[in-house]
């Protein structure tokens, strides 16, 4: 019996093995196989105890036909509708921020609604954090436009803390060109947006947003606001409680210290001075980042993308998109960028 290279273990069964019990000597029992007619060929499948199912074919022509069928466009349609969510390629390493007050991450939260008697209050908020100390500031937004976001950064962070060198944002509408011009031209702060080529982004802010949402869901039903002024008071209290909770909570990434203690060199609850070594904390944080990176890459499929290779693009699906395809494409890769482990796909080239 000759084994092929296909993962389904295609075996070639010659004509003399099919005649007069030759197949029985091959599989040891007649109950272990079944004959199926595939065109003019006879396809025989069998399975032994403790082994994977094998497919026996009478000649190599059928093996090539099956491989050609699997590599046809039907396979692409099947892959586009799978829900496996396999991830390919290794994640790029990330460097921990060494010095405090050098970089800030900005992001917006909301909109959130508070139910009143006659109407609802809808509001947004802007989160600013120093990734070295995890010190956070949260300020409500009225309209969520770029000029208002720039005012919040200037009035909330620049007026209270040392001027940073960089500002990392996402691609939200509140961080448009007016926001960028205000910070770069007037304040001398470089604005960088998180894109596919810069996957470092602002992941710390997204985790804090979950804590802020939890506090809002707990305090709002207890206060039960009925007027517009009561709603604004609840919003201010919720955001202040979230800021205090984030500043007092100890974190393993900064040596089991709280962000407030690390930034102000004094405990947030007790009248005790704090003295820390920022270099040791950065080394420990870098080790934690590297360990988490190894765990994440262990779950991903190793693959080096190449030019002219075809890939599928994952689609963001909602709760009502159960019958929609999981991927679009295939697209041909025109350029490979290895700096940030990102890959530029040309969507104009199809199969």
TrEMBL record:
Residues 96-267 form the Integrase catalytic domain. It comes from the Eukaryota. GO terms for biological process: DNA integration. InterPro entries: Integrase_cat-core (IPR001584), Retrovirus_Pol_polyprotein (IPR050951). This is Integrase core domain containing protein. It comes from Nitzschia inconspicua.
